[in-house]
Amino acid sequence: LMVAKKRSALVRLHEAMREGKMEKHYLVLVKGKWSDEKRNVKLPLQRYLTTAGERRVSVSEDGQAAHTIFRLRQAWQDFSLLDAELKTGRTHQIRVHLAHLGFPIAGDDKYGDFTLNKELSKKGLKRMFLHAHRLVINHPVSGEQLCLEAPLPEDLQGFVRSLEANATGRQ
Q1: Residue 152 contacts residue 25 (beta carbons within 8 Å)
Q2: For the chain, give me the number of helices (H) and strands (E)?
């Protein structure tokens, strides 16, 4: 979430977003062992309504272009921590790209592995593991490059620590 004090700054921020002059990175924990150090995913996304009237998104040739770059940060036996860099900003882009590839986000209640999510909830992960952690943008007035970072919240850090402890045999 970004807030601009002046309308002129807001207009410039919107322009930077539209023109792809903003670098957005998310940390995401997925089910499965991701093998690529870096993977460019370019899969078009289409919005639709379910029969219950819920908004959803799927990969579809008729959809809008969507591009995400995934980088492996850490891998465990059953999970992988990825950096997801958005090159486009489509609704549910990261969630749908990963689910389509067979790597659902831990705790994702729309596109995830629902059985796994129940197990993870018992182990302390009570929400989706998707965190906006880095934004790089030029200041709308001075033009100076800004790098804004947000560390993982404590509950997500705790879950990563539990994965590390399990991997080393500590409980």
Answers
A1: no
A2: 4, 8
For 20-81, the DSSP string reads T--EEEEEEEEES----SEEEEE--EEEEE-TTS-EEEEE-TTSB--EEEEEEEEE-SSEEE
- Residue range 103-146, pLDDT digits in tens: 999 999 999 999 999 999 999 999 999 999 999 999 988 999 99
Is pLDDT at 171 greater than 80 in this prediction?
A: no
Q: In this predicted model, what pLDDT tens digit does every residue of 13-44 receive, in sequence order?
A: 889 888 888 999 999 999 999 999 999 999 99
Q: How far is CA 140 from CA 2, 12, 18, 137, 149, in A?
A: 12, 6, 14, 8, 18
Number of residues written out for the chain: 171
Residue 94: alpha-carbon gap to chain centroid: 5
